[in-house]
């Protein structure tokens, strides 16, 4: 590394900056990173000299400018690859997802580029946590992220807090907005960055604009058990470099993995359809239970009303018999009690009208009871249909288990890269077992509904017998 340090008796500020940048990111200024479609091309630069010339340095040979351009191209590739792979994956990303890890590494290099060195008691310190703390002052809603980062128990260094901040901002889909906020305030960033740093130049604004595309992906990152303080952030260029020989040799293996992925996607689609069917059936069962409860309550009210009407009919009969006896007694003494007989006849007419009203109301209650019996028959028919649907769901679950067994046998014959697919299959089996438990619960609820329907039928039969 000493060969790269310019030998000059009176070093200038420009010399110090070029030498420091070359020592920190020598792998970025020895190569020019360019984008060929969606691949990365590294071209070695033999015409770059780190020794300062008395003539002004051109932009094309400036190592700092090359570093900025390389980092911007790496950010483009990383963001594009992350979006495409996340959309193809079709699920929420976690901390173990390789393209997501590489994106954070590239962002860390972009944030560290051109940072001013601060001297502390423990030595020199370069951390991008300081610029990120500015976001809280410029955007109050970012205070929640900063407070969450400070409350994390496992973070002890500013570097770890900066990494946690980037992850939380990505999960909130606010990373692009926050980056644009601090890039627009270069007067505040000048306290932390050199004038030619990436965050101070137009490349930083370009990267902030590219980050808008990350709002289409969902990430769920757990940072409690992750050691963010001691992680080594190294860019993996192999994820983006062209390798024709390797792709031709592993075509057959890629074909097998593609077939397994297609089968996995098919199983997941079936799983989603089955989950939707189970949810629909559960909603229907809940609706049936509510209607059954309502019918039970109405039946209880009708029973109470019928009992009341029967008591009224008995009372009217007793009163009618009493009035008949009174009429017989009144006939023997009609001359003396003519006025009392007229009143008795009037009361008899009123009681007769009351009895007719009671009989009409009893007929209405009988009609309601018949409608309730018809509703119970329709409920039993619906329960039978749900049982048939549950049988079909069981058959589909058995087919899924057979497909999972086939996938397990196929995945064992693939290379070490297919072990992750086995974990996915295991998760599918857990989901299927959960669905089986849900189906068993549905069967139990169906049996309970059948039992309730039978109880209702028996109660309706008893009511018919009482009416007869």
From TrEMBL:
Give GO BP annotations, semicolon-separated.
regulation of axonogenesis
Intracellular or extracellular location(s):
Endomembrane system
SMART domains found in the cross-reference section: RUN
Q: Does the keyword Coiled coil apply?
A: yes
Arranged from A to Z, the UniProt key words for this protein are:
Coiled coil, Membrane, Phosphoprotein
Report TM segments.
none
Taken from the UniProt entry, a GO cellular component term is: endomembrane system
Q: Where is the RUN domain?
A: 94-226
Q: Where is the signal peptide?
A: none
**Short name of one Pfam family for this protein?**
RUN
InterPro entries, A to Z: RUFY1-3 (IPR047335), Run_dom (IPR004012), Run_dom_sf (IPR037213)
Coiled coil (UniProt feature)? 271-319, 390-445
Major place of residence: membrane
Q: Which domain of life is it from?
A: Eukaryota
Query: What is this protein called in UniProt?
Result: RUN and FYVE domain containing 3
Q: Which organism is it from?
A: Amphilophus citrinellus (Midas cichlid)
């Amino acid at each position: 590394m000493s060969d790269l340090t310019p030998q000059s008796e009176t070093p200038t500020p420009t010399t110090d900056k070029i030498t420091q940048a070359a020592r920190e990111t020598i792998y970025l200024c020895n190569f020019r990173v360019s984008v060929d479609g969606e691949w990365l091309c590294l071209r070695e630069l033999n015409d770059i000299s780190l020794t300062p010339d008395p003539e002004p340095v051109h932009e094309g040979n400036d190592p700092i400018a090359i570093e900025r351009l390389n980092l911007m191209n790496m950010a483009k590739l990383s963001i594009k690859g992350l979006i495409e792979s996340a959309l193809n994956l079709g699920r929420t990303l976690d901390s173990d997802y390789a393209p997501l890890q590489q994106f954070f590494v590239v962002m860390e290099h972009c944030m560290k580029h051109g940072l001013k060195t601060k001297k502390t008691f423990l030595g020199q310190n370069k951390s991008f946590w300081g610029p990120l703390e500015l976001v809280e002052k410029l955007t109050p809603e970012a205070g929640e992220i900063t407070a969450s980062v400070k409350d994390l128990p496992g973070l002890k260094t500013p570097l770890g807090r900066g990494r946690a901040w980037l992850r939380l901002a990505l999960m909130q889909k606010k990373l692009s907005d926050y980056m644009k906020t601090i890039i627009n305030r270069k007067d505040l960033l000048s306290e932390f960055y050199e004038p030619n740093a990436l965050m101070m130049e137009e490349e930083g604004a370009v990267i902030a604009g590219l980050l808008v595309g990350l709002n289409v992906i969902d990430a769920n990152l757990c940072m409690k058990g992750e050691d963010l303080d001691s992680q080594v952030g190294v860019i993996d260029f192999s994820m983006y470099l062209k390798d024709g020989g390797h792709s031709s040799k592993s075509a057959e293996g890629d074909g097998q993995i593609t077939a397994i992925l297609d089968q996995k996607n098919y199983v997941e689609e079936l799983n989603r359809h089955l989950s939707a069917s189970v949810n629909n059936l559960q909603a229907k069962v809940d609706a049936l239970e509510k209607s059954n409860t309502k019918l039970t309550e109405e039946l209880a009210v009708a029973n109470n009303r019928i009992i009341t009407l029967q008591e009224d009919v008995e009372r009217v009969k007793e009163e009618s018999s009493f009035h008949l006896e009174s009429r017989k007694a009144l006939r023997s003494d009609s001359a003396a009690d003519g006025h009392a007989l007229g009143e008795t006849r009037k009361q008899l007419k009123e009681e007769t009208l009351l009895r007719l009203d009671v009989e009409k109301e009893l007929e209405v209650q009988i009609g309601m009871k018949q409608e309730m019996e018809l509703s119970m028959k329709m409920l039993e028919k619906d329960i039978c249909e749900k049982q048939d649907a549950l049988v079909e769901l069981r058959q589909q679950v058995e087919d899924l288990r057979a497909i999972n067994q086939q996938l397990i046998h196929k995945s064992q014959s693939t290379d070490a890269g297919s072990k992750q697919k086995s974990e996915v299959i295991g998760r599918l089996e857990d989901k299927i077992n959960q669905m089986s438990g849900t189906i068993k619960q549905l069967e139990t609820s169906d049996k309970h509904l059948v039992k309730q329907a039978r109880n209702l039928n028996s109660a309706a039969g008893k009511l018919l017998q009482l009416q007869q």
